[in-house]
Amino acid sequence: MSLLAAIHKLWRSIAPRTHSDVEEEFRSTLDAYQEDLIRRGLPEGAARRKARIDLGQPATQNETYRDAIGLRLYDELSGDIRYGIRALRRNPGFAAVAVLSLALGIGATTAMFSLIYAVLLHPFPYAGADRIMNPVIIDDHHPGEWSWFSLSKAQLDDLRLAPPVDSLLGFNPSHMEITGGALPEDIDGIYLTENAGTFFGVRPLLGRNIEPSDAANGGHAVVVLNYRFWQRHFGGDPNVNGRTLEIDHAPYTIIGVMPRSFAFNGSTGVGDVYLPGSLMQGLANVPDLSYIPWIKLRPHVTLAAADAALAPIVHQFAKQHPERFPDHWQLTLQSISMTYRQETGPTLALLLAGVVLLLIIGCANCSILMLARGRSRQHELDIRSAIGASRWRIVRQLLVEAVVISCTGAVLGVAASYWLAKLPLLLSPDSFPAESVIRINLPILVFSVALALFCGILFGLVPALRLSRHGSARVILGRQIGVVAAPAKHRWSVLIAAQVALTLLLMATAGTAIRCFLQLMQMPLGYDPSNVMKLGIMLHVHNPGEWSHIQSREARITYIEQIQEKIASIPGVSPVAVGSDDATPPYTGAERSFEIDGTGDREQPQARVMLVGQRYFAVLRIPLIEGRIWNTDENTRGDFIAVVNHAFATRYLSSSNALGRQLRIPGLTSRNRFAAISAQSTGWRQIIGVVGDVRNDGVDRPVVPAIYLPYTVVMSPWAQFFVRTQGDPLTYLHSIRAAIASVAPDQQISNGTFNGTFTLNDAIEHDAQYSRQRLFSILFGVFSVMALALALVGIFSIVAYSVAQRTTEFGVRLALGAPRAHVQWVAARIALVSAGAGIVVGLAFDSFLGAVLARWMQSAYAAGSLFAAAALLALSALLACLLPARHATTVSPAEALRYE
Amino acid sequence: MTKPVELPQGTLEMLILKAISLGPLHGYGILLRIQQISGERLEILQGSFYTAIYRLERRGWIKGEWGESENNRRARFYRLTAAGTRQLKTETAKWTDMAAVVAGILDKKADEI
User: Per-residue pLDDT tens for A191-213?
Assistant: First the structure.
């Protein structure tokens, strides 16, 4: 059945009989009665009249019918709606301003709601996502920090049997290469325990997910694709199932494609492909045969109970693998949405507050417009009330008109919200779960419809009550003729004041956000990020032929140095090899414990350890404060030397000369079986130099102590290069590729995140505080511009309306010799005074509220921006008053008197 | 001529159900039958008649179908549905009960109280 037919059927069940059907029946009864009366001796005319008096008029019978079956309210409301739409079309200017005011507010609020829905209420597509937990361990010495841990397959199976566990997923993210094509391509693969399909409970877009049967015979060589990878690599080919994908020189059969919302997982990196975990056993190139667990709890198990039940089991595991755990620690289960809720929740709350303010301002605007216009409609309403409309009926009519405006605004707003909601995701992508997909769905539509009705009633109620108050007495006098000064009491003056105060609040918040962002941008970084690009290379561990050439530490150093020299030979390029994965400021280094000779047994001092080449400081332009940087030979050896940053020197070496002191880092090894480690990596090292501080804990946070060591100390099967270029680094990409290819023809450049390469400026833009401040500055800037526009439109239209209403009065004033300036003052007075009152109230409130908002924003509150905003607002309000007020003085007295 | 009786609220619908229970009727036929049974003592016109018919049909107690009247005119004939029959029965029982109780009270003599 088509939709139209369904609607038709529904309609028939509500009102089964048609208009003509009802009328025909009534007429037949009427005729029968009339004939009867004639037979009883009445003359035809009298019989006709009596029949109609007794039974009623055929013309109104359908109304009686609809009334009887309970459609009266519906009929009246639809009449009101039709009338409301007609009234709007008669006043397109009013309608456009009112609808747009609300469309802005409703659109922004709906956008923010859909974002909150996607990020906080429904971030993950997994079945029972609210019961899925990350088990993390918290080191007793560092209670603020937590870390994930990994388990062997056997331990995973032990944990699965624990009473609070409903099901358990183990996963192992791993770098892989797609081979067999022209150039190898780096991808992120994730090995999953074979219960993945049921654990996630997400229906694949194509084919199937990994199933327990895939574990048979050491694991089937099958692969499930991530949606984005499928789009990127296969162009969204719907017939991809059954095809073969060559990964690390081995063929895998594609069995399924996951839907777009499935992006497991945003925390360790979204996988391009998902493979059965049993395969890991048979592969030579998996660095670490362990799984990170995700636990789905049984329903109604509390977190505390689960923690208590699981802690002894995990403590047992720690005894088997003490190297994977710190000395003293606690187990805690964290909801997988916790990090986002903690980090993104306040951001969204603040933005929601902003859009709600915008919505309130929009509603106030509509109220003002309706009140202003209502004075010209007073006559119509008086007539309605004179011919018997009750006050409730008039209020209803006006409310329906308001709701018509707000619903029209909502339609525009919801359409716009689809794009608006994506704005924060674009501006601050790392703050939101990769799984969040913004789409307009049922809860969001319900929300926006409810919001539209609420807004309509909110802004319609004051004008409706106000305009319906007059009795019918005035109608008899006809339209007001003559010179009548405007009534002194104006509801709208309160509304204007409120609107201006709220606008000021938004503007001051935006000012604070923008000022903080500017400060952040001017913060000294300690290094020069411009024109520095990061490149990664993966060493070919899966290819035995190639691997044998670079397996030994020495061979690997030679290989990397060779590539570095080739890159350096390109004119205008200076590269440096970097060992750590996390050497990219503004957030660098792995936190490690160390010991300093001569300071006794202080409790486990910590510093960020960075593995870099000796040219790192030159390439990033980090100044040397004392001593020297290691040389090429020391770089190759790796041991016995260290360079520290200034923060390290002041914190740990304050009393004596830093140079020559000894330190050692006991934990400096790697569990990766492809890592190459220097002979004395955990041995004593002499501090040979102190360098300047580089932001290493985020752009806005103080620099923490850091130790720099040669990258050859611990060499993972991958390496990175930082390349400083003259001019835009991306233009050098081609020649750098060629340089690398001249050393090893099939050595690819990593194309992981950021499309393979990214610059240090990109890294700053991805910093959490930086992107949050930028998000706030841009969005609150936009909000306050919108709010300002709305407030000005409100002021402008109220003055313009009152000038139009009082044309006669102004004409007479001018005729009697009033100076033009005085007439302008009379015209603009009330709006000016209310705007002024709004600014004063706003200033008082904002110095309090602004401080609260600024703390939410995690930035200092700037009072200066409040006064700047107030001055701007006052100036624009003045203009908005005076422009229409000038019109009052252009009235010629003769014309004004003819006007009525 | 006997004095006309005014109908209490809500009884018109019961009377229409009763009139139709004796056999399908069109609108005017229902009017005539009620007047005939009541001995011309009920004044049920005044426009509320069709409102009652529409309501009964809406509730599914009566069902209307087009047919031909005795003088070959198209007319809508109403008959009682099963639900209407049940409704008439309960209404009748309720009414009789109530009438008996009220009459019993009103009939009491002073010495019986």
Answer: 999 999 999 999 999 999 999 99
Chain B residue with minimum CA distance to A27: B75
Q: From residue A519, how far is each of A213, A451, A696 by CA, in Å?
A: 58, 38, 18
Domains within chain B, CATH numbers bracketed? 11-107 (1.10.10.10)
Give the pair of three-digit tokens for residue A684: 């004593």
> Of all helices (H) and strands (E), which one includes residue A593?
strand A590-593
pLDDT at A628: 92
Q: Which of A24, A31, A64 is the closest to B50 by Cβ?
A: A64
User: Residue A456 in contact with residue A402, Cβ under 8 Å?
Assistant: yes
Instruction: Report pLDDT digits (tens) over A281-294.
Output: 877 666 667 888 99
Out of B27, B46, B51, whose CB is closest to A25?
B27
Tell me the C-alpha distance between A61 and A734, whole Å: 84
What's the pLDDT band for A303 if we cut at 50, 70, 90? confident
Residue of A nearest to B51 (CA): A68
Chain A residue whose CA is closest to B43: A54
Residue A730 · residue A533 · CB < 8 Å: yes
**Does residue A62 belong to the interface with chain B, where contact is any CB pair within 8 Å?**
no
The residue in chain B having the minimum alpha-carbon distance to the alpha carbon of residue A64 is B51
What's the confidence (pLDDT) of residue A183?
A: 64
pTM, 2 dp: 0.75
| ipTM rounded to 2 decimals | 0.80
- Dist CA A77 CA A54 (whole Å): 30
- For A29, the closest of B28, B46, B54 (CB atoms) is B28
Which pLDDT belongs to residue A481? 47
> A691: alpha, beta or left, given left = phi > 0 and alpha = psi -120 to 50?
beta
Query: A33 and B46 in contact by Cβ < 8 A?
Result: no
Hey, is the C-beta of B65 within 8 angstroms of any chain A C-beta? no
Yes or no, beta carbons of A28 and B51 under 8 Å apart? no
Q: At what angle do helices A19-39 and A44-55 cross, to 10 degrees?
A: 130
Compute the nearest-CA separation of A838 from chain B (Å): 57
Q: Reply yes or no: is the peptide bond before residue A217 cis, omega within 30 of 0.
A: no
Closest-CA residue to A337 (of A432, A260, A259): A432
**Cα–Cα distance, A344 to A768 (Å, whole number):** 10
| A65 in contact with chain B, both atoms CB, cutoff 8 A | yes
Helix or strand or coil: residue A857? coil
Beta bridge partners of A608: A591, A706
Angle, CA B90 vertex, CA B89 and CA B94 arms, to 5°: 120
Find the CB nearest A55 among B47, B55, B69. Answer: B47
* CB within 8 Å: A55 and B50: yes
